[in-house]
Amino acid sequence: MTTPRLASGGVVLAAAAAIAAADIAVLPGVLQRVLPSLLGAHAGNVALVETVFATAVFGILIVAALIAGALVGRNVAAAGPRPGPMAAIGLAVGIGGVSIATGYAAIAGTLTTGAGAGTGAGLLLLGAGAVAVQVVGEEVFFRGWLQPALVDRWSPAAGVVATALLFAGLHVVGGARAPLSIANLFLGGLMFGLFALRGRGLAGAVGVHFGWNATEQLVWGLDPNPGVGGFGAIADRDLAGAALWGGSGEGLNASIGMTAVLLAILAALALSRWRSPRD
């Protein structure tokens, strides 16, 4: 790796960090001040507010990535040569991974039944749309723009690891504090990065990321913990008790069960046959 390429990658990484940190740290506060007047009588609609938040915050990441990609002639939203199979595999891994981690919590005795289950199909669809906006925003920004830019300048391993570190750092800005939670977010970033690298596009990464987040929030109702979000959940479950098994405010993200699942998925990805964009 030459010094100019190392420095160029550092500039790209610093620019991405500045954009993401400003977006996550500043925009939510601005929205909290202006939304009550903008939404008027609808300001108390939690689902609507959460949808607007997701669209604004993660929409900025999409726009920033599209602009950066246009400047260098890269399609940051490319799905890859086999988008259907990769998205399906990713979706299955995301749904299964969260469900297995939830099962570990049940075995450890931290899984309890909340009081917020049951919601309309319309709210669930709206919630799925909000999750999709968040997922697409993060994947286009991190795995569509940043990771390929770093892979080009450094190496596939360095690009995936550096992007995963910044991905975890973004969530620290967003409120993650537990060391295990931050470690799991880093492992999750590695998982998304390897899916994108293997699929030579975003389809697999978006699939696993959406399956993971939607299952955690809208199926099991584990995010937030305790309670459910504004869109409700099919089966509200809470985590209470040992923090090591998710019984803290950071829920499943801070669970050793999630660590085990993520490590197993990463091991499977590492042992399987895959090609990088340079091959």
Explain this structure.
The chain is an all-alpha fold and 279 residues long. It has one domain. The chain is built from eight helices and two strands. The protein has a two-stranded antiparallel sheet. α2 packs parallel to α4, α3 packs parallel to α7 and α6 packs parallel to α8. The protein is globular, with a radius of gyration of 19 Å. The two termini are 17 Å apart. The C terminus is likely disordered.
Briefly characterize the structure.
The protein is an all-alpha fold. The protein is 70% helix and 2% strand. It is built from 8 helices and 2 strands, in the order H-H-H-E-H-H-H-H-E-H.
Could you give the count of β-strands? 2
Mean pLDDT: 93
Rounded to the nearest angstrom, the distance between the terminal CA atoms is 17 Å
SS-derived structural category: mainly alpha
The biggest sheet amounts to: 2 strands, antiparallel
Round the Cα radius of gyration to an integer and report it: 19 Å
Q: What order do the strands of the largest sheet run in, or round the barrel if closed?
A: 1-2
Question: Can you write the helix and strand succession as a string?
Answer: HHHEHHHHEH
Number of helices: 8
> How much of the polypeptide forms β-strand, as a percent range?
under 5%
The poorly predicted ranges are 275-279
Write the layout of secondary structure elements.
Elements: H1 3-39, H2 46-72, H3 83-108, E1 111-113, H4 121-153, H5 156-173, H6 179-199, H7 203-219, E2 237-239, H8 256-271
